[in-house]
Structure formats: C-alpha cells, structure tokens
C-alpha cells in the first residue's frame, strides 16, 4: 500500500522529466485507469493497493517512454463513440471530428445518406461516427492493414453498428463495386522528410504507413481523387482530411479529376481541416 499523494507526486515528476505536458493530469489519468476508478472515486482515495500500484508503475514506465496514453489504456473517444485502439492504426483525434461536422453541414437531411465508404478506415472512427448520424446508412471501411480492418470491425460491434457496416483489407486501388453517397478519408498527409521529426508519441509508436504522404504529402490525394468520379453517386460528396497548408493543393488536385469544391471546414484550432468535394458532372445513379 502507498499513499496516493506520494504516488502521484513521484509520477508527475517522472512525467515532467520525460517532457510530457501537464504531467499532473497525466499521472491522475494513469492512476484512474490502473485502479479502475473514475475521477470522483479517485478523489476519495487515500491509499493505493498493491495490485493497482503495480499496474500503475508499468503504465507509468510506458508513458515515460512516450508511448501514447491511448495505446496504454487501449481506448480512445471520438464523436460519441468509445473505441478500441491498437498500434495497427492512428489514434483518433479531435481534429478529425471536423469531417463529420462538415458532412452534417452539406448533408443536413439525415435520410439523404444511405451508403458511406471510408478509405483508410483505421479504427473505423469516421465511418462509425457517420453511421451514428445517418441511421439509414450502411458503411464500408477499407484499410491496407488487415489488423486495422479487424479492429474497425470490433469497434463496429462495440458501438452497435455491426449490422450496418462491413470492413475489408485492401488498397485504395482495389476494385470497388458500386457508388456511395459519401466517401470519407483521413489519408497519410505528412511529408516523408517530416515524419521522423514528429513528437515521439507519433513518430515512434503510430504506424508510418498511416502518416507518410510522400515527398510533398499529397500522394494519397492523387489516388483518391482519381477514383472519386467512379465512386460517388450523382448527389454524392467526398469529405477529406488534410494537414496545415494543404487544402488549396488538394482542391487543385480535385479539379484535375473533375471534382469541385463544396465546402471547407476548420477544426477547433481554426485550421482548415476538412474539404468537401463533388463531381462537377455528377456521379453515377
């Protein structure tokens, strides 16, 4: 048994030395997870039992090594969802919720969407968030990594969408039959030369294939935009995520393939994060 305040103080010092922002908060989050208590229950604790302390110390060592909190706990929140995460995928980020906000802006009628495709589905966060808003829709998620496709399928089951979704492993160049009312994608968009300089939580622990967008960061958009005219229904739209300063370039790539800009949407930090495109001539039936 050890006093909670002593454990948290020592942990915060270790996290601070490791260069982690807000070390006191991180220490409390780790202890809450290790002791299986929520914040209010944690406040009422004076001592930590041996089992929780051992679990905490293992988790603390991982966090001091800059492993992301979500990989330690195995969970992350996105939109209204509770998701399992793993090293097979990127951790869902709040910035990506801008894509769902943009989609709701251009498709306010919740009955107007019956089919959704998510390219590079990862945890399935974007697809499942869209299904949570469009109750009549069925979703298809594609990811190059089989482990990611399996993870997304588990998240669909976890959140009650298993009957309205399907996932498979394959490349964006794979033949996809049919057209979709909505195509979502958060593709790799970091320039190759910049990947190694990202914060350790990202550069060391998250999969490089989901980060590296090629020399200019735009390789994936060229592939996606080339495919979109054959993937969208007549009134369909694509909602793409991009990094800082990329939105004009992505819009220009879209124009090369007959796609016109419908909307730009900023994330909570004010960065243009989501671009909505549609076919200039309309898609299929």
Structure write-up:
The N and C termini lie far apart (67 Å). With 285 residues, the protein is α/β, with parallel strands linked by helices. It contains 12 helices and 11 strands. The protein is 39% helix and 21% strand. The strands form 3 sheets. A 7-stranded mixed sheet has the order 7-6-5-8-9-11-10, sandwiched between helices. A two-stranded antiparallel sheet has the order 1-2. The chain folds into 2 domains: 2-65, Helicase, Ruva Protein, domain 3 (Orthogonal Bundle), CATH 1.10.8; 84-279, Rossmann fold (3-Layer(aba) Sandwich), CATH 3.40.50. The chain has helices spanning 4-17, 23-35, 39-43, 50-64, 69-73, 97-106, 125-133, 146-158, 192-195, 200-203, 219-227, 247-256; strands at residues 2-3, 47-48, 75-78, 81-84, 115-119, 138-143, 165-169, 180-185, 232-241, 259-266, 272-279. Belongs to the protein N5-glutamine methyltransferase family. PrmC subfamily.
Fraction of residues in β-strands: 15-25%
State mean pLDDT (0 to 100 scale): 92
* CATH secondary-structure class of the largest domain: Alpha Beta
Distance between the termini: 67 Å
Report the major sheet.
Answer: 7 strands, mixed
**CATH architecture term of the largest domain:** 3-Layer(aba) Sandwich
The CATH H-level superfamily of the largest domain is Vaccinia Virus protein VP39
**Which secondary-structure class do the elements indicate?**
alpha/beta
Biggest sheet, spatial arrangement of strands = 7-6-5-8-9-11-10
Name the overall outline.
elongated
Total E-strand runs: 11
**CATH fold field value of the largest domain:** Rossmann fold
Please tell me the total number of domains.
Answer: 2
Radius of gyration based on Cα positions? 21 Å
Order of helices and strands: EHHHEHHEEHEHEHEEHHHEHEE
Can you count the helices? 12
Helix content: 25-40%
Contiguous low-pLDDT stretches (5 residues minimum) are none
């Amino acid at each position: 048994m050890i006093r909670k305040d002593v454990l948290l103080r020592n942990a915060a010092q270790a996290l601070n030395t490791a260069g982690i922002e807000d070390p006191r908060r991180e220490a409390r989050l780790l202890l809450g997870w290790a002791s299986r208590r929520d914040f209010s229950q944690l406040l009422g604790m004076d001592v930590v039992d041996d089992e929780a302390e051992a679990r905490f110390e293992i988790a603390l060592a991982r966090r001091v090594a800059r492993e992301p909190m979500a990989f330690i706990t195995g969970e992350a929140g996105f939109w209204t969802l509770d998701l399992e995460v793993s090293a097979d995928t990127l951790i869902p980020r709040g910035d990506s919720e801008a894509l769902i906000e943009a989609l709701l802006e251009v498709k306010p009628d919740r009955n107007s969407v019956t089919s959704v495709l998510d390219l590079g589905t990862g945890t399935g966060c974007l697809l499942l968030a869209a299904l949570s808003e469009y109750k009549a829709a069925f979703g298809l998620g594609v990811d190059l990594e089989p482990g990611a496709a399996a993870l997304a399928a588990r998240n669909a089951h976890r959140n009650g969408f298993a009957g309205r979704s399907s996932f498979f492993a394959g490349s964006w160049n794979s033949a996809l039959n049919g057209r979709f009312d909505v195509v979502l994608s958060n593709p790799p968009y970091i320039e190759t030369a910049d990947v190694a300089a990202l914060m350790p939580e990202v550069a060391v622990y998250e999969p490089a294939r989901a980060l590296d967008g090629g020399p200019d960061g735009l390789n994936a958009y060229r592939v996606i935009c080339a495919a979109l005219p054959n993937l969208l229904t007549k009134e369909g739209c694509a909602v793409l995520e991009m990094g800082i300063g990329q939105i004009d370039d992505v819009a220009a790539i879209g124009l090369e393939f007959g796609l016109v800009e419908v909307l730009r949407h900023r994330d909570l930090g004010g960065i243009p994060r989501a671009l909505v495109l549609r076919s200039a001539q309309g898609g299929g039936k």
